[in-house]
Amino acid sequence: MNPRNRRQISTMVFDGLTHHVCLCRGFRDGLPVFGWGEAPSTLLTRAQLREAGLRPNGQDPVALLVFRHVKPFAHETVAELFSVERAALKRTATPAQLVALSRAMDARRVCVDCGVVQDYCVPTSTRQCGTCEDTAMADQIGVAA
Ligand SMILES: [Zn+2]
């Protein structure tokens, strides 16, 4: 017998509204466990929700996806599955948040020495632009010599 056929039948009730009858491999922590490619299409992992422009919206996982990687180490991976019906659209930033974000990004581009806003983020270690960093480096070498 193909081990993939050894599954249990379970009924899942979400909020007493939707009844899914599906085949799962058993239960872990009270949640139905599905193998790779076996989960119902209405259940998605966090990453799959994100790809679909959705977020879990504070819901608890309703099932688990358990699979092993094909290659060398065959670690068991457990991913939480969330109900698409209870997911929400990804939040979009408010204008105020966008302003705050752009200010924060500007702050990361300002050189502490020359005060010029660069078109790249200055390194967090020195907070200097490339030119000032080179100058400082040359000065250090000059002092050392
Ligand atoms: Zn500079």
From TrEMBL:
Family matches, as InterPro entries: QRL_CxxC_CxxC
Record NCBIfam families: QRL_CxxC_CxxC
Protein name, per record: RRQRL motif-containing zinc-binding protein
